[in-house]
Amino acid sequence: MVTSLSSRERFQRTFNFLSVDHVPCSFMSFSALRRRLGENLYELSLAEKRLGLDAFLFIPTASRPQRPDHPDLRGLPVRYHSEVVLKEWKEQVINNFPIIHKEYVTPAGSLETSVRLSDDWPHGDHIPFIDDYQIPRSIKPLITQLTEVDKLQYLLIPPQEDDIIKFQAEAREAHSFVKQNDLLLVGGWGVGMDMAYWLCGMQNLMMLIIEQPDFIAELLEMIHIWNMKRMNIVLSAPVDLYLRRAWYEGCDFTTPRFYRNHILPRLKREVDLAHEHGAKFGYICSSGTKPMLDYYIEAGIDVLIGIDPVQGTHTDIPLLKSKFDKRICLWGGVSGAVTVEQGNEQDVRRAVREAITDMGPEGFVLSPVDNITVDEQLTWQNIDIFIDEWRKNW
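Structure (tokenized):
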């Protein structure tokens, strides 16, 4: 019987389908707690460890306020060509919300985007380069046609020397921290179709996938090359687990055929790169996974993160468990937004038990999916219940 493992050892054995002392529990994301700690990921890891969770440290640690042009893309800074000039202005509209316009003047010409504000717009009079909020509010996405792709290259500049030096210093600090606290070191994020949706808009990109797949393939290749350069830097840390965000790569947003022809080949190269550096590859997709399961196996990913039995469409947990048998680990199991933030004690306890029974014990990490964001009394009560029930069933 394996006993008294550190969190890092427990993760590593789980990722390799070896026996563990108990099913690990690690929250994918814990924004409610992170905000209480001033967005400090080191303090977040220690706070989660005090709760008894299997915490990890994610690098780079830059918080959302520190990345105003890419708040939903964690990781290294996003840089533009030195000759790019940015212009932003607000247009007042009678009897409607104002519109913010943004122009990127590049050496190859201008790219423009426009967003209609709403009461919940979080960025003031600023339009980030890439961000979830602007997708449904966009009047004119940044990229709408093939002729704009050449201009985009000036906005996808690899991290510069100063960024690399800063990251290397952070990596040294992170290694010292995780060694001292026996934690897993995680890095990322990689990005593919999510980036394309930020740039092109949701409905527009879905139509372009059908009508102009070659155009989108060219766009994805540009994103892929940029992403691989960023990956190399993060993987050099080195990290134990590299994460790619792929919330928009399920069948809710793209077809299996397009996935096979255009996403899968690039994903395989990214997985291979992670493995060359000795890192496991984690793929975050919480909905629309069922038609893509064989592609995940073919790509060689190590962990599918975000298994949501409530909000995740096309989520077949028995099929996931049987098809991935000792090939891909599962991370998730309980809906964060519905069960943990809104449920009662019975709901939470039942969900935790079912997750451990259906997806554990080997090759499974328990977590709310995707995030705990609501900082209210009910949430914290349910977190205590969640952890208590996990301990009763580990």
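The first helix runs from residue 7 to 15. The chain has two domains: 7-78+154-393, 85-140.
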